[in-house]
Amino acid sequence: MGRTVYAEERLLNYLETLGKPDAYSVGLIFGQSSDQKDYVVHLARIPFVPAADAVEDSFHSHPTNPEDNYIKSIKDLDVFYVADHAKTVTRMLPGGIWVLGMFVVGPEDCLTDNSLSQKLKSAVMAIHKSLDSNVHLSGNSPHEKLILSFNTLTKKYISKSIDTAADGFLKPADWRFAKKPTKWYHFETIVDLNTLCPIFEEENLLSLKKQLQIVIRKYAEMINKAVIVIEGEAVTNSSNPLESIMEDDKTKKNKQEEDENDKLLQVGVYIPYWPVGKQEDIKSTICEASIKVMGQLVSRVSLHEKSTCEEAANAVKQDILRSIASRLELHWDTIIVEENGFQEENVTLHEPPRRIFLQLPQNRISLSDYLYPGEVDESMIIDLFKTLLDLEISENQLQKDLEKQIDPTDLYKQNKVSNENWNAAETETKVESDKSWNIIIYVSALLTVICAIILGILLYFFQKKN
């Protein structure tokens, strides 16, 4: 049995606008996957640029001519460019939404021609390989991808799926354009981040990029162990439908008000501060430096009406990790001078970009972009959404103030207090509610001193006992 794909009828109208009698338009399919069903939320053609002007990061690839959005032949398709573009726009997607595959609009049925279908298969396989190489960005991306071919002459379409992790054969997919829109549940939460990540002796000589990758891995371990609470109910590995939560008395009160709108639910994320273990497992070691992650992260995800509680919890976790990974990847790519050779008690403040949101007008699913401190050019952001996701938006549709910019002086004060009370187990460094998400990188020579004192005391009592 093949996959069933649900898409709104407006997306069929979008495909018809891309047609040209002598050229092809290629784009990406965005949506949510569940069992043998896919729910498509958006289609966006890929902007192509001449090979001489192409750059590695699609964020900087802007077509100078509308004709660059088309190619003369599918055989001319650059599969690596398509894969790179898919990886770039994945940063802009919320958790639970993936690049499900690709579509092609042109004057023939590309999936009935063996040479053309092989080219499209190569592109889809390249997309999967590109996303699969970054698990924190792509999450548990579905292995079965879609290819949709729309004939501009006959106005007919063909859809097939390909299992990128198995045989790679094309299988028929039942693509359905429906007049009735899919209902979505929307989740929003604010995650407080206040974690100290020690940099051990063997890690201190690594580049800042590699050290930040260690931070991402450590956060992935914590987020994956987090407890997700939806509307006051803890979510475990439950296959219960989300509809069961909506039947709670709290949501019944607002049922009449939300009959015409998608549902909005509040989510709590409880991250374990320290892994649970036995006291004898605690060991002391020398730390050369530390990276402290402080601030607040805003997370927004959407799940289709047939989703389970477990799928919702996984989507929230994936959104948090995707946002952390996206910020740090963008940040280390912008660092021109690598910070090597930290000096004692040196404190370096890094401010990765904060998250801004744009809701799709048809279904309120939130997409993201990232804005660096001091960047206020809305036209650049609008152009980015237009170029990468083929969206016509206005400035008032952007939500830029959900994550605030931080006052660096406050962070340094908090860091000083934290160092003065390092050996107090009950001490907590708190971040005000309007702070954005940032990184402080500093050398903590105090760690080495404390370790030396502890070891000295232990040796003293050991010798006294003997």
TrEMBL record:
Subcellular location: Membrane
Presence of keyword Transmembrane helix: yes
Pfam families attached to this UniProt entry: ODR4-like
GO cellular component: membrane
Membrane-spanning segments: 439-462
Keywords on record: Membrane, Transmembrane, Transmembrane helix
Family label: Belongs to the ODR-4 family.
Protein name: Protein odr-4 homolog
